[in-house]
Specification:
There is one protein chain. This protein is mainly alpha-helical and 69 residues long. The chain has three helices and no strands. Helix 1 packs across helix 2. The relative contact order is 0.23.
Length: 69
Amino acid sequence: MAAALVRPANNRMIAGVCAGLARRFGTSPATMRVIFVLSCLLPGPQFLVYLALWVLLPAEGKGRDAAAW
């Protein structure tokens, strides 16, 4: 079973979005950050998606049920 999609309390740089996505998809946080930075060079709403995930993803251990994600 894959890890829950939450923003972890450790391995954060800004909001923990890349670290949470890396944990969910089984890659390293550094790899996910490089992918995100490279994707920002392409046209599209990448930064807005990052902000939305920052708001919508629950933080690890904040009492919300992370298993529902």
